[in-house]
Amino acid sequence: MYQHFDDAIREPVGTATPRRRSRHPGSWPAFFGAMGRDYETVAFAGAALTRVADHESSLVAAAIGPGDGRALLDVGAGTGRFTAIARARNWSVTAFDAAPEMLAVVRERHPSVRTVEGTLGEPMPFGTASFEAVIAMRVVKYVPDTEAALAELARVLAPGGSLLFDLANGRSLARFGYPADSISFVSPTAVATLLRRVGLHRVATYAGPRLPHPVYRRLGGERGAAAIAATERALDAVLLPGAGARNLIVHAVRGR
Fold first, then answer.
1. CB atoms within 10 A of CB 59
2. What is the pTM of this model?
3. Is 221 helix (H, G, I), strand (E, B) or coil?
4. 51 or 9, which is more confident?
């Protein structure tokens, strides 16, 4: 489902900037906090969305590798889906989220994990180069200034450290499935310039699903999931790599 498409990305002529169609409404922490411990059940209900979640988890595990006790920051940690993966790979995890209800679940499930409440897009309370790896999945798109968010993630990342994050693709028709004026979009051609501006180097970029989120919700059973997977494969065969993907998952490292 997640297709590697680095070779299809071309640097645009001139200076590329994120497409900022929307602005953060300020209510996302309350929205997600209200889900509390039910977040993962709500967000990934059904076989189709479970497959999406499993692919994300496999990319996270591959990007961070073994921790050997080193420090990792999970930004937008939620109820600790990726925190659990990092802990299983022997990382010393700090979970960062704007919703205190979510962090309470992380503390309950992972008592040894440090939790810090805060908002991406504002200065984070961590020193420069504090973490050997950073995960920021399903969170950057909620920040109005994408470049500022990535700059702060790069700041707290140690030289040579890995960052895995995702962006909402402004070139996808699926963007119309998002609530109006709530999400920041970035075109695939802008990614390289964004990374260079904040001192990051791309390792790989992956394309997420192309179909709108409601399709995954409505076809949540095993048969529906199989139909969605077949449709995605067919689109991969006839479209350019990464074309129309709903989100772009980027693995980058900080320059030494």
1. 19
2. 0.87
3. coil
4. 51
